[in-house]
Amino acid sequence: MVSSAIVIGAGIVGAACARSLAMAGLDVTVIDRSTAASATTARGEGNLLVSDKAPGPELVMALAAAKRWPALVRELADELGDGFPGIEYEPKGGLVVATTEDGAAPLLRFAAAQRSAGVDARELSVAEALNLEPDLNPAITAAVHYPQDAQVHPVNAAEALLASARRHGARVRQNVNLSGPILDANGTLLGIATNEGELHADAIIVAAGPWSGEVARTLGVTLPVLPRRGMVLVTSRMPKRIFHKVYDADYVGAVGSGDAALQTSGVVESTESGNVLIGSSREQLGFDDRLRVDTIAQIAAKAIRLFPFLADQAVIRTYGGFRPFMPDHLPLVSRDHRMPGLWHATGHEGAGIGLAPITGELIAALVAGAAAPCDPEPYSLARSSLEPHLTAVA
Amino acid sequence: MSEVLVIGAGPAGLAAARAASDAGASVVLLDASDALGGQFWRHLPETRPARNEKYLHHGWSTFRALGEALESSPTVTIIRSAQVWAIEVLDGVAVHAMIGEPDGARRERRVFRPDALVLATGAHDRTLPFPGWDLPGVFTGGAAQALAKGERLAVGERVLVAGAGPFLLPVAQSLTRSGSRVIGVLEANRAARLARGWSPRPWQLLGAAGKGLELAGYAAGHVRHRIPYRLGRAVIAAHGTDRVGSVTVAKVDAQWAPVPGTEHTLEVDAVCVSHGFTPRIELAIAAGCELTPNRFVAVDGNQRTTTDGVYAAGEITGIGGVDLALAEGEIAGHFAAASATESVSAPPTAAIRRRRVFTGFAHRIEAAHGIRSGWSGWLTDSTLICRCEEVDFGSMRAAAVATESESFRSLKLGTRAGLGICQGRMCGRTTEELLCALNPNRELSDGAVSDRRPLASPLRIGELAHPSSQNNARKGTP
């Protein structure tokens, strides 16, 4: 009988796991080596996207998440009341455009395949796209509208999930450093050693995002999660002129690519506060967080290609972060077959905000032996697409 | 010829540029404004010079001499209206600047890759929030002085000056000289603390006689204009509809908490409030320089930071005033040139001696006048903390209590405090201190600081997208 769990990592995925586990009746402790909602969770845009996902297991999870979020937002609001910082859930929809002649056909093919997998993907004429986004560059060659795409305030959403977990009995301990595993003679994980003493639990869940590889190594197993850096530009506040998440179709290629070199793609959206967020970049540099001006200059140029008026708008801030990259581009929500007692909820790359609630519910179901909200097999550590990477890293 | 790049043309930067040039380096001096002198020697534009600048400015002749030497030197290039917006440390240091009027349609994007860099970015004055501080007619000491020194504008007819620190005195003097009637200067600290801060080892102050004269000059001005100087008092609220018409003044205790029952109202049409200075360290952070526990740029005896080839001088290494800035600038410029040209020359012993004298002075200012935590006692829930984003104290407290967050970053993103156009220059440190005090464990432990701004100034997206000219600034380029 599993009755207690430790979640390592207090980002949005860890927070969602903690909430679901606590609601399932487990005694839950969350530890973070720093503070909650401060690393990858605080470095993104808050995307809940189906539009960038090809038919397959990640899309299945994204569709389930898209359905789950509105109810979750209501649950959290009811639990936490008005004083809590707003989650800013906005089902604004996505608009994906091709900006080259060559890019049009692949975008439309991609959308058609998504439609057959249950995505609401509506092909638009240029005029219809301009109707949705009047300031969009009219030189686009194709456009697809995705009404299911949405956005949240990622930090406030993570804090809300964590506060809710606390209300269901979870303890959150920040600034606690993991130092090693506590194993029995058979190699079953019984707990963890930390700088604040030993903690024991029936299930230990690694939800440390891009640092999950490091955490797993400390516990004695390998995990092929790598940091993939991304940068965002923030403009000053302005009257709303961008109404959807609008991005260049080449973004899908960048997301799905395994290339370590710099890739940038225009991704533009407004926030509730009136700032426009501009992405995106993908680059594998380890945990090097030094500013690279060429990267943000490329992002700026691609944003102007989508919305020419942005050229005269002021950018006031830039931030960057690390996404948890998996070599086979699928999240990992699974027991670790190599070490009983160990579980993983990580590897969502840029989709962790959107997929967090389903990830939490799935891990809670797996740990507690309850009915899973979706088929867990594709997210298993034992899947065949991970096999070469597990041995390669080992 | 090896190149030393100096950022900031206030006292420290001017002294650094001069010393680097004297030591044989080619020097490029960048400043964001269209005139030399920085905040301290802010003056009327050359096109309409004033006769009495030398009376308005301490050390005006020093400034004139430095400026003239640099402008006439064939190996010094001065680039005005140069906004440094990023420093990149990949293979060596790259300084990214936009050259031209900030509102100009066509600024030039330039990248400098100097052999050595001197950061002399100075400080801006810090004002703690109080109810009504966002009313027109409430000025920071720095803004009031800028108007007085740079524009000769009187901020009001009946003005109260309040806050903490020796800076209040020159502010009052500038206001008087530009035609305002200063009805009083309120220093939050009490006599006992001032005495404790200023009096130990008084012999150390002997060498700082010039500093004493500077303050004596301000004090004499006060006597002449009959300006009352009161200790242990603070402005705790400003009132008015479309402009400040009165302020509430109260006694404050040793920790600056207002003493109930001591409030009274004064009629004013302007109030200037300043509680100290915040060093402008974002470029030093961008350059990878380590900070001291008090969050100034850490330097060694040669003013060298922890980043190779990067030196720092002036207020960013400690708030110490013009004389310390001049001494540090000279030392930094000297050693930056030595490192750039890979040569050895006699150390600037006179400047090193002056630095020792005036460093003691800086410690005394902090000991006597540094901000105390009780001030938040004069806040109300509706007092704005972050004016750019209109975040009030009540919503900050609600977020801190609801989330129990120990993360400055997550609370900042959650409340939006410090996310506006000034990027927390005005409210950043105040926001940090308040959020820290509101946390149940009195701790923010994510390591994030409000001074970190990878984009050191806003720029247009089009400017960022536009390719830069990568060549170093040499003579002959604009």
Q: How would you describe this protein?
A:
The complex is a heterodimer of chains A (394) and B (478). Chain A has 394 residues and is of the alpha/beta class. Chain A folds into 2 domains: 4-72 and 154-225 and 328-393, 3-Layer(bba) Sandwich (FAD/NAD(P)-binding domain), CATH 3.50.50; 94-147 and 227-325, D-Amino Acid Oxidase, Chain A, domain 2, CATH 3.30.9.10. Helices cover 32% and strands 26% of the residues of chain A. Chain A contains 10 helices and 19 strands. In chain A, the strands form 4 sheets. In chain A, strands 5-6-4-14-15-16-13-17 form an 8-stranded mixed sheet. Chain A has a 6-stranded mixed sheet with strand order 8-2-1-12-19-18. Chain A has a 3-stranded antiparallel sheet with strand order 9-10-11, with helices on one face. The radius of gyration of chain A is 21 Å and the shape is globular. Chain B has 478 residues and is α/β, with parallel strands linked by helices. Chain B has 3 domains: 3-124 and 278-365, 3-Layer(bba) Sandwich (FAD/NAD(P)-binding domain); 127-275, FAD/NAD(P)-binding domain; 379-438. Chain B has 14 helices and 21 strands. Chain B has helices at residues 11-22, 53-56, 60-72, 141-151, 168-177, 191-198, 209-224, 282-286, 322-341, 349-369, 393-403, 408-415, 428-438, 461-465; strands spanning 3-7, 26-30, 76-79, 82-90, 92-99, 108-112, 116-119, 123-125, 138-140, 158-163, 181-187, 229-231, 233-240, 244-251, 264-267, 270-274, 277-279, 310-312, 384-386, 391-392, 459-460. Chain B has a 5-stranded parallel sheet. In chain B, strands 9-16-10-11-12 form a 5-stranded parallel sheet. In chain B, strands 4-5-6 form a 3-stranded antiparallel sheet, with no helix packed on it. Chain B starts with a strand and ends in a 13-residue tail after the last helix. The chains are: A alpha/beta (394), B alpha/beta (478). The interface between A and B is large, with 49 and 45 residues. β17 (314-325) of chain A pairs antiparallel with β21 of chain B.
